[in-house]
Design goal:
Elements (H helix, E strand, L loop, with lengths): L1 H13 L18 E7 L10 E7 L10 E6 L6 H10 L6 E6 L3 E2 L9 E2 L1 H6 L4 H15 L18 E6 L1 H13 L4 E5 L12 H7 L6 E9 L2 E2 L2 E2 H15 L2 E11 L3 H14 L17 H6 L7 E4 L7 E4 L5 E5 L2 E4 L7 E3 L2 E5 L5 E5 L3 E5 L5 E6 L3 E7 L5 E6 L6 E7 L5 E9 L1 E6 L5 E6 L4 E7 L6 E9 L13 E4 L5 E5 L2 E5 L5 E5 L7 E7 L5 E6 L4 E5 L20
Parallel strand pairs: 3-4, 3-7, 7-8, 8-9, 9-12
Antiparallel strand pairs: 1-2, 2-4, 5-6, 10-11, 13-36, 14-15, 15-16, 16-17, 18-19, 19-20, 20-21, 22-23, 23-24, 24-25, 26-27, 27-28, 28-29, 30-31, 31-32, 32-33, 34-35, 35-36
Helix pairs in contact: 2-8, 4-5, 6-7
Length: 573
Amino acid sequence: MLFLLLVCCLCQAQNKYVLTADSKKKVGVEYGEHIYARFDKSVVFPGTIREVDIYVPAQYDGKTPACVCVFQDGMSYRADTVVSNLISSKEIPMMILVAASPGQVIGDFDPDSPRANRTYEYDTPSPRFGQFVLEELLPFVESLKTSEGKSIILSKNKNDRMITGCSSGAACAFNVAWNTEEFTRVYSSCGSLTGLRGSFTNSTLVHKFEPKPIRFYFQSGSHDMWTSFGDWWSANQAMVRAMDFAGYDFTYQFTENADHCDDNVTQLFPDAMRFLWKGYPGNSPSPKKETHNSMLRQVLLDGKNFEQVVSGIEDNSILLSNNKGEILVASEKGAKLLDDKRETVIIDKKVLAIGIDNEMLAYESRKGLVIADKNGHIRKNIKTEICPCNAVALRDGGYYIVGKENQGDLFTSIWYLSNEYELSRKADGLKSVYSLALSGNNNWLYAFGYDTRRGFSYKVNKEHKDLLYGQEFYYIHVPDQSDGAETTSAICDNFGRTYLATAYGIQICDYNGRSEAILSMPGNVKPVSVAWGGEAMNVLYVLCNNGWIYKRTLNTKGASLEGVMPVIRVGAG
């Protein structure tokens, strides 16, 4: 009896995940075909070769754009059988499966020792692999045909795209969906959200970003990997907690005693497909509840999203606002009002800042600074050799200016221009600091650089406008593909917040220098300049690197030179 019991236990241990009928061939269901190909023409990952496996269900007509599911590390989960079964039972839409191996580059001296691209491609939390999938892999798949000559036509609608993988492949699936926003359904099994490269930051970013329209299914097990790179079990738990915090439409299955990428991930795949495609096509993935992020809840207004205002804005332009909440677009050629259909140039010089009474501080190359009235009439020429990058006005009529003393200098300095138009240096030796912002109460001057994640805070001396006690006060998030936050513009509101144009989008920092909320721009374009507009100074205007200006009404009031000085009371955090 003891022997029989032991045999039964061993059998159960070897077959602890019983696959359902969804994962097995069924009578009456017609199954499709696999197309195998090699892809070696990548520009995103030059020199790589990879094997591609496309599964085309038998029901596909070769004429209608089909949904697509992209797999990492080749086809897995018995996905071809599962998908055909669920299509037949009308539980999921028509879907073509695309699987590819990670790329590798073959060496010349020892071909059997290739450069394996797997962790580079999969574990890097950047848009790079998503670019490869969208611009190279899927178009390559569409160039192929079935054995019957059917064309492969994949839908370009993000609502029709899913991506999945196990281990680093799951991290890849998350990174592609998160960084491109072109995939709205993700099955992550045993996701490597750990320190293999940078995917360990993803759960933190989920807490901070405005929620994205993506639906997730997460799987892990108590016997998942635990290595020098981290603990997969706890990393996936942290991600699930982040999803719940941010209000995502998600579910998860954490299985006791499940190992890394064992049969549990296959057993769960049919249910994952049902969850991810529930209600298709009408039930598009979207957050199912409000985020717990207090800053997002304070700042965002229901139904108020980014709107396109105008396109075709030239490179190196910046946005400025006057005391009426009107937006000026300023460049080397001059400045004009945003809503002026005549596009009348107010002043033919580069405007750096707008001061009290709508006075303009401008710069003319090789000549110096210029003070002009609101109509562009020159009131004062200030001879100087400095090459200014940015400036900010104070309530007393003065300006802080950041720039280089000479064009070729590596470091920047900050000068104060008094309302008597006298220049004095207040800080120097700053590496790549190009953007300034002044707190709403004028207590602090903030200075931000391009190739760093930090921002400086200086105490503003009320009498002499000296900059005191400067320190690297701000912590700004940096995308993996960037060497710095790429902060190019900064403004403050009357509640102690700072809004930064960065490589990650609009990062909103609290009064204690921490990036607490992040707003992605439409299409993930990069913001380059920000300004407050509207009569209530509550409309955030954003110029992006695609030449578009966007606007969004927020539940706040931008800092300005008009009205009563705001009282800001914030705890130490």
